[in-house]
Amino acid sequence: MVAGWEWDDTLFEGAAAYYARGRLPYAPGLAAALAEALNLDGHGRLIDVGCGPGTIALTLASLFGEIVGVDPDDGMIAEAERDAAGRGFAGRTRWVRARAEDLPAGLGTFTVATFGQSFHWMDQDLVASTVKGMLRPGGALVHISDLKPEAGAEEKAGVAEDLPHPVPPFAAVGDLIKSYLGPVRRAGRGVLPQGTPSGEREVLARAGFAGPQRLVVPSGQLLERSVDDVVAGVFSMSSSAPHLFGTRLGSFETELRGLLREASASGTFSERSPATEVFVWRNDAVER
Predict the structure, then answer these.
(1) Beta bridge mates, 44
(2) pLDDT, tens only, 17-62
(3) Regarding beta strands 209-217 and 276-283, do their DSSP bridges make them parallel or antiparallel, or are they unpaired?
(4) Residues 263 and 183: beta-carbon distance below 8 Å
(5) Whole-prediction pTM value?
(6) Of 68, 88, 135, 196, which has the fewest beta carbons less than 10 angstroms from its beta carbon?
């Protein structure tokens, strides 16, 4: 857990409705890469911890017999249920509103546990130890994230590539957010002056997992993004979730849309979806 910061249930308040539209997709080969690495055949059970609106769980749904998604945000769980029904997965999915720290919560044992850019919000040692006990011998904990570019690299790359449309003006958007919310990153009712913790490798090794096996799933898809898409991306973030702006939300959105229209006369932007980085940690059959 982050020193000096405590989780509260407003962390992603109001963000769920913007998530699917605003976030760039994971690499399209993610499911195939995990199927090969983990010998997945449509059976077994998956638990997706910090599942959000079901992004990872539903991407992998055809690889398992049963999927359980766990998230503490009501809005995220509602979005996941809606998307699962729309994709025809309602019969094999279950969505549980709970914090990762509340596990095992009577959910049973699993073949695979996934964390899609969520582990950094948790009491990592507690959750790693608990999830290890929920995995069958030989099961796997899978940590999934975007392969992050260097700061500012998206805009620089857009200029160098001569893309069909401008890259979103990320630096200017960040400055606008700071002008409303202050210079220190917001997170729920608190702030994160040092950001969220890293060190997952040490935590998972300490919990007794073996590995990791690292996979990089390439992407680089050229995407067209509208002003609405970029706005959704801003509101999908914990650091700029809608509730943080309070009564100034409307004026912030008006300024944000004006900034974006100035950056692209057509209202269209170009972005490349990032590669996906995966670390697979094995639950040894022999207890340590």
Answers:
(1) none
(2) 999 999 999 999 999 999 999 999 999 999 999 999 999 999 999 9
(3) antiparallel
(4) no
(5) 0.92
(6) 88
pLDDT in tens, 178-220: 999 999 999 999 998 888 878 899 999 999 999 999 999 999 8
Q: Is residue 219 part of a domain?
A: yes
CA distance 249 to 227: 17
Give percent of the chain above pLDDT 90.
Answer: 88
Whether 159 maps to a domain, the answer reads yes
217 is written with which tokens? Answer: 């799933």
- Please give the Cα distance from 141 to 144 (Å, whole number): 10
CATH number at residue 249: 3.40.50.150
Q: How far is CA 113 from the centre of its chain?
A: 14
Please list the alpha-helical segments (H only) found in 189-274: 200-206, 227-235, 249-263
Token pair for 188: 């729920």
For residues 218 and 36, give the distance between their C-alpha atoms in angstroms, rounded to a whole number. Answer: 15
The answer to whether residue 4 is domain-embedded is no
d(CA 132, CA 141): 8
Helix, strand or coil, per DSSP, at residue 57: helix
Domain that holds residue 124: 16-283
Q: What is the pLDDT of residue 286?
A: 44
Number of domain units in the chain = 1
